[in-house]
Amino acid sequence: MGNFGIWVLTICLIFQSGYGFYLPGSYPLKHVVGNYLSVKVNSLTSIDTEMPFSYYSLPFCKPVEGVKDSAENLGELLMGDRIENSPYRFKMHTNETEIFLCQTNKLSSDDFKLLTKRIDEMYQVNLILDNLPAIRYTRKEGFMLRWTGYPIGVKIKDVYYVFNHLKFKVLVHKYEETNVARVMGTGDAVEGFPSVGNKGSDVPGYMVVGFEVVPCSVMHNGDLVKNLKMYEKYPSPIKCEPTTVSMPIKEGEPIVFTYEVNFEESDIKWPSRWDAYLKMEGAKVHWFSILNSLMVITFLAGIVLVIFLRTVRRDLTRYEELDKEAQAMVNEELSGWKLVVGDVFRAPSNPALLCIMVGNGVQILGMAIVTILFAALGFMSPASRGTLITGMLFSYMILGIAAGYVAVRLWRTIGFGDHKGWVSVAWKAACFFPGIAFFILTILNFLLWGSHSTGAIPFSLFVILLLLWFCISVPLTLVGGYFGAKAPHIEYPVRTNQIPREIPAQKYPSWLLVLGAGTLPFGTLFIELFF
């Protein structure tokens, strides 16, 4: 393209009208005043343990129409999410107070022990409204902290208290006709309530841009609610004081649950409604973990650099001390860093295992690059639950073609152009590391099944994973291996000595080197998981 064409293209781009759109997540949902909003519940999660449990595993109120699971994608199931409907419901832009939810049955001994155990383990209730998790604000040492979810209860002086009254605040923004692309649905459509789109597009409506909750422990009189039905008004005023607790948990006594909701118009626009969640206080811990990882990498790189510089500087000093004639007669073996030139490309004792590891390493590296790229572009937004895990899984399977190609081509290079046995190498590259991961996943899943955790993968998902593995990943790896067998092998830049160089005895035992090499990455992961 000449200069004239470039100028024409530039002018066209300047005068061309542009349309911006919000790429990630779900589309904005218009709610007409008076329409019902359904609140959903996710799995109970703990800041102390890594095992999620179902919300209805504890004696909480259940919906009148029964508990129903929401449609979940592959990533949500692998993450242990279980999104279900809840009895909490709101009317758009309608403030309600002192709403009676239910009175549970008398707590049995098992229910009492389980409820107190979950409180000791610091489990949190995770509510969802219009795909937004409930956020809780707390003040500590003059700072306002943000947390998702709210605790089940609290223990004070050996007495357990339950948060049985919830004070909701829903932030809404007036609906605006925007050119927003719906990229991916999350299964969060309103169930069991009137549709939000039945009254026409000309009727004014609102969008949900914030969802806040304040848990309270309020002493209720069980005799006052014997004849009350769900969503009727509680007979006496309810005062929600977050700093005080007054509803102890006692075996053989029921628990009364109530709630209130307040709507507030906000200037927050729909594309910016996730900003509050991206400023969570947990990000400080992640920054600390990232800083720790950078320090480890810098420390290791510094050690390698110092050793390399000392070796090279010693050789250069030796060369400078010799005159030109003597330098020409110096044997190359005097140079310490050139001692392994004739042995660096020697085939290992198990070349197939090396090829498999390199191929799978390329596959994992490619998966990481693709995932980070798509996440940076917004295709894997937190508004679409499970898309990150789903994207990682599918990119890993598709990049099996790269693993097969690299593994087989390296195998052919080690064999000096002979591609005999490439099918076996490609097959092992497709099954070796995924097989180990699947074996570990199976063992962990049996433990989760035994604990009745929602983190346990259903049997149907196991079948799906096996089909994806053997119907997508394995064939693509074999295809990549075929192209790797047809590609020319890589020529070595130096010749390998026929007689292997004698390796001196190790100064330190192997187990000590393995322990030292594994301590640093283990410490990095431990800090991330511990905090």
TrEMBL record:
Name a single GO biological process. Answer: protein localization to membrane
Q: Where are the transmembrane segments?
A: 287-309, 352-376, 388-408, 429-449, 461-485, 511-530
Q: Where in the cell is it found?
A: Endosome membrane; Golgi apparatus membrane
Question: What is the protein's membrane topology class?
Answer: Multi-pass membrane protein
Give the keywords, sorted. Endosome, Golgi apparatus, Membrane, Signal, Transmembrane, Transmembrane helix
From which residue to which does the signal peptide run? 1-20
Under the cellular component aspect of Gene Ontology, which terms does the record hold?
Answer: endosome membrane; Golgi membrane
- In Pfam terms, one family for this protein is EMP70
Which named protein is this? Transmembrane 9 superfamily member
Q: Which organism is it from?
A: Gossypium aridum (American cotton)
